[in-house]
Inverse folding.
C-alpha cells in the first residue's frame, strides 16, 4: 500500500482545474458573446471569420460609395434640369422672333435675353460641381484620340456611350466612309462591324448600337469629313470610377458630356446662334432642337446610372446581411451550449 501520494486527491484536483479552466473560458464566451476570442479557440474559424469581416466592411463601404455616386448624379441632373428650362425659353424666344409682326428692333430686344440665357447655360456648365469636381464642363466626358492628338467627339462622332463595358480605354473605332461601315475593337481581340447606312443630314444624329461589345456610337453629318479609312483610339481620361464592390476591379464608370452652350447644338453650337434677324432665328431653331435632344439624352443616361446604382445598393445590402449571418455562425457563441 502506497501512502506517499493521494491519487484520488490528485485526480480530483486535476478535474477541478480542468473544470475551472472550462468555466473561465465559457464565462469569457458568455461575457463577450463570441465563441472565438483568440486564435487558440479555433484557428481556422478565426481566419475565415476575419476574411468575412473584411468582405462585410468592404461591402458596406461600397454601398456608401454608391450613395455618393447617386448624390453626384443628382447634382449633375439638377443642373441639366435648369439647362433644359433655359433651352425651352430660348426656343420660345426663337419662335417669337420668326414672327413677322416683330420689327428688327423687337428682334434685337429678344436677342438680348437670348444671349444672356446662352451665357447662363455655359455658366451652369462651368460651375456645377460635386466635391469640387466639375460635372458639366466636359472634363468627365470620353474623348477620341487620332494619331496621338486628342479630338473632341464632334468630328463626325458625337458621342460614345458605354452600355455594359465599364472601361472604354483601349477601344478603337475604325470609320470606312467608302464602305459606309464603322468597326469597334475592344482591344482584347473582339470587334464588331456595322454598316451605318449613310450619314445623317443637317443637325440630325444617328445612334449605332454594337450589341456584342455593349457600347453605342452616335454620329452626325460630319462623319463624311473623315478620310476614307481612319482609326480612332478611345480614351476616358476624365470619367469617374465608382468602387461599387468589395474587391478590386468592381467599378462602375460614369461619363458626362460637355453641356455648355459652346458644346450643345451639333455642327453649329448654341453659343454661336442669335435671333436678331428672321434668318438667324430660323437657323437657331434647328440648333436648339438638337441641343434639347442632347440634354434629354444626357439626362436619360444619368437616370440609367442612378437606377443601376440603386439596384447595386440593394444587392450590396443583401450580400452584407447574408455574409454577416455566415460570419456570426462561425464566430458568435451559442449561449445554450456555453451556459
Amino acid at each position: 500500500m502506497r501512502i506517499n501520494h493521494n491519487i484520488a486527491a490528485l485526480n480530483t484536483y486535476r478535474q477541478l482545474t480542468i473544470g475551472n479552466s472550462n468555466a473561465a473560458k465559457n464565462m469569457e464566451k458568455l461575457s463577450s458573446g463570441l465563441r472565438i476570442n483568440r486564435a487558440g479557440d479555433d484557428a481556422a474559424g478565426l481566419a475565415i471569420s476575419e476574411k468575412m469581416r473584411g468582405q462585410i466592411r468592404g461591402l458596406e463601404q461600397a454601398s456608401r460609395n454608391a450613395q455618393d455616386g447617386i448624390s453626384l448624379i443628382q447634382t449633375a441632373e439638377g443642373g441639366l434640369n435648369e439647362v433644359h428650362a433655359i433651352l425651352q425659353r430660348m426656343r420660345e424666344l426663337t419662335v417669337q422672333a420668326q414672327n413677322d409682326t416683330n420689327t428688327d428692333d423687337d428682334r434685337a430686344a429678344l436677342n438680348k435675353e437670348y444671349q444672356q440665357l446662352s451665357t447662363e447655360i455655359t455658366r451652369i456648365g462651368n460651375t456645377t460641381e460635386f466635391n469640387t469636381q466639375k460635372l458639366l464642363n466636359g472634363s468627365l466626358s470620353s474623348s477620341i484620340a487620332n494619331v496621338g492628338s486628342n479630338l473632341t467627339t464632334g468630328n463626325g462622332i458625337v458621342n460614345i456611350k458605354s452600355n455594359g463595358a465599364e472601361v472604354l480605354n483601349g477601344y478603337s473605332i475604325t470609320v470606312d466612309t467608302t464602305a459606309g461601315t464603322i468597326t469597334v475593337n475592344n482591344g482584347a481581340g473582339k470587334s464588331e462591324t456595322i454598316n451605318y447606312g449613310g450619314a445623317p443630314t443637317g443637325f440630325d444624329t444617328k445612334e449605332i448600337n454594337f450589341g456584342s461589345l455593349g457600347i453605342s456610337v452616335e454620329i452626325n453629318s460630319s462623319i463624311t469629313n473623315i478620310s476614307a479609312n481612319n482609326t480612332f483610339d478611345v480614351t476616358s481620361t476624365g470619367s469617374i470610377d465608382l468602387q461599387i464592390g468589395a474587391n478590386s476591379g468592381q467599378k462602375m464608370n460614369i461619363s458626362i458630356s460637355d453641356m455648355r452652350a459652346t458644346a450643345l447644338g451639333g455642327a453649329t453650337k448654341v453659343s454661336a446662334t442669335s435671333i436678331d434677324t428672321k434668318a438667324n432665328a430660323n437657323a437657331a431653331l434647328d440648333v436648339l432642337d438638337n441641343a434639347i435632344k442632347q440634354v434629354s439624352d444626357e439626362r436619360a443616361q444619368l437616370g440609367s446610372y442612378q437606377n443601376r446604382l440603386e439596384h447595386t445598393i440593394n444587392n450590396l445590402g443583401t450580400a452584407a446581411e447574408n455574409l454577416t449571418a455566415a460570419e456570426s455562425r462561425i464566430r458568435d457563441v451559442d449561449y445554450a451550449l456555453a451556459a
Observations:
- The helical segments are 7-32, 43-97, 104-127, 278-331, 335-338.
